Amino acid sequence: MSHNTFGHLFRVTTFGESHGPAIGCVVDGCPPRLPLTAADIQLDLDKRRPGQSKFVTQRREPDQVKILSGTMPDASGMEVTTGTPIALMIENVDARSKDYDEIAATYRPGHADYTYDMKYGIRDPRGSGRASARETASRVAAGAVARKVVPDLLVRGALVQIGDIAIDRSRWDWNEIGNNPFFCPDAQTAKKWEDYLDGIRKKGSSIGAVIEVIAENVPPGLGAPVYGKLDADIAGAMMSINAVKGVEIGAGFESARLTGEENADEMRMGKNRRPEFLSNKAGGILGGISTGAPVVARFAVKPTSSILTARKTVDRYGNETEVSTKGRHDPCVGIRAVPVGEAMLACVIADHYLRQRAQVGEPVNWPFPPSNK
Ligand SMILES: Cc1cc2nc3c(=O)[nH]c(=O)nc-3n(C[C@H](O)[C@H](O)[C@H](O)COP(=O)(O)O)c2cc1C
For residues 329 and 56, is the Cβ–Cβ distance under 8 A? Predict the structure, then answer.
């Protein structure tokens, strides 16, 4: 009943609170003999790590991952998975629990304080406990393992909108992602965001954002009708990320404006007698099953609820009061949500890859037989 686990064959359980000694995850079901080192996982964790620019929380967490189980050197000395549970641990080293004394009994509007109290009758206010996005570091660690499961899988994410300012998609350049503190694929928009977000940050306010995640080299055939649709599982995975309020696949809500002709992803025969799609409104998924085209998901995150401006609220004793949140917070959670979205997409695809293998066999790009025309 506690729901700290997701996935079926690639199964991830996360544990830990924001101000506890450590957070982490156990990945169960990962196939054996895949090369895996802490350095592989660290690469992804370093992208999500706090304190890397003035536009994210100033909490200083090195987020160093330790592999506690599930790997060993093979005959050649290479560190590989063994098929047993992979336990990953990240120590919390920069918790400042005092910052949260004032809100221990007061509910921040927009945060999970009130609902945790209503559910459990007790809540950990220190850094928001389990409701803290610190938990998402464990997801990123699990995602790094998931990336290893599907051959040639490439999962990348980008921030595509902050507040009202969206990127110009014609300027999308993946090489730009590492050149700015926003994971922004459009250099000109990244410049605009700097001033815009700086103003918001200085006011102690916050703003929402949209993130796009794309998985390439996903073999066709992943996903199961009717209750195990790939798009449904992706939507659930994205919605499980803190602060997410909307998810789209492919053309998403925009498809409501399209005609049937515009929406049709027309097909032609490509190289090696493999069908190709001339567009990708479907976001790589039809009937809940992957088409082989890139899987495209977008999600919207709300503005950070911890802000300096006082907001009306009540406390746990029924008194009406006001609350403003001091301490260290992300002015736009969308930035650090990019690697989290990538990780969740990688985990869902790895899970469906293993499920496809279990039911049908190794996923393959079936070439069509020679034409009879
Ligand atoms: C990467 C990331 C960082 C976040 N940082 C903060 C933060 O610094 N302060 C805050 O109040 N909320 C932050 N959040 C959002 C809260 O964790 C979230 O709003 C809260 O758990 C309530 O859940 P809900 O918004 O999904 O309903 C962050 C979310 C993400 C994804």
Answer: no
